[in-house]
Amino acid sequence: MGSKSDQLLIVVSILEGRHFPRRPRHLLVVETKFDGEQLATDPVDHKDQPQFSTELAWELDRKALHQHRLQRTPIKLQCFAVDVLSSAKESVGYIILDLRPVQEKKQVHSTYNRSY
């Protein structure tokens, strides 16, 4: 059994979006699934520069992280527009993050620009 020091936290910071068209009656949410666990941001207004300002995190041990790196398991962040009246969910884009360059205690920032 591994010690607690073998536990790592993979943290993805989702700060903001850029160049989204303003859509009244819609909210934006980012969903992702990694290591069998699905996480999502809180819904935010669908506007030009939506502010998510949140972090999604998964806890796993070094051995599991090593396996994910060997298998090149990506973290796919998918952005959805949600109609507040009908709850219909429409995919508006995604970004895939590669785990291989991730290092301990180092933050990796990525920007996703959306244009229609």
UniProtKB/TrEMBL annotation:
InterPro entries: C2_dom, C2_domain_sf, CEP120-like. Residues 1-112 form the C2 domain. One of its GO terms (biological process) is positive regulation of centriole elongation. GO terms for cellular component: centrosome. PANTHER family: CENTROSOMAL PROTEIN OF 120 KDA. This is Centrosomal protein of 120 kDa. It comes from Acipenser ruthenus. The lineage of its organism: Eukaryota, Metazoa, Chordata, Craniata, Vertebrata.
